[in-house]
TrEMBL record:
This is RNA polymerase sigma factor. Residues 112-122 have a biased composition (Basic and acidic residues). Residues 45-111 form the RNA polymerase sigma-70 region domain. InterPro entries: RNA_pol_sigma-70-like (IPR039425), RNA_pol_sigma-70_dom (IPR014284), RNA_pol_sigma70_ECF_CS (IPR000838), RNA_pol_sigma70_r2 (IPR007627), RNA_pol_sigma70_r4_t2 (IPR013249), RNA_pol_sigma_r2 (IPR013325), RNA_pol_sigma_r3/r4-like (IPR013324), WH-like_DNA-bd_sf (IPR036388). It comes from Streptomyces bikiniensis. CDD domains: Sigma70_r4 (cd06171). SUPFAM superfamilies: Sigma2 domain of RNA polymerase sigma factors, Sigma3 and sigma4 domains of RNA polymerase sigma factors. Keywords: DNA-binding, Sigma factor, Transcription, Transcription regulation.
Amino acid sequence: MNPAPPTPWRPGARKTPRHSPESDAVTTGLALDARGGDPDKTDHFVRALHHDVRRYVTHLSADPQAADDLTQDVFVRALTALPRFEGRSSARTWLLSIARRTVVDDLRRTASRPRLSDRHDWQTAAERSQPTGVPGFDEGVALAELLALLTPDRREAFLLTQLLGLGYAEAAETIGCPIGTVRSRVARARGDLTALLTAADPPPGTLVPG
């Protein structure tokens, strides 16, 4: 069962949770069922969380062209570790933690930092995942393109809580930091995005330089 697409965030709008305890219980159940290696059960588990993982690694790595390979690596790691998964956290939180480590390992291997992809790449990715005509995104500015301008820590916290629907506690567990840090990063990310959308100048040092 694939979760419904999230409602894009815009300044002044309330976040509509994409996930619920019930939906997390379903995906966790799928993970537990797939531990035995049954192909059909494994496929159901992968399909249920594939979209979230791909979206997460795309924004976290800031490289849409690498997203498919990174997503595949995440699930290779996850399926290898799945027999040891005991459901102590939700399968979604567990899988996004693996995704985060996968991206970090990839960045270390290439000795690079999260970077801005060129404008065309971001627009192509945005056209595939974002609806057109969304209020608050004047002149066709895509959310993905705006997120690329945030510092990596704020982008990740915003992505997990505002787009993927994790609670602050889950996001803190995924990132490995205190919950107050997540709240602070999200608040600052929202301020940065609001400044960009209203053509205001964000405070120095809050955005990734071009």
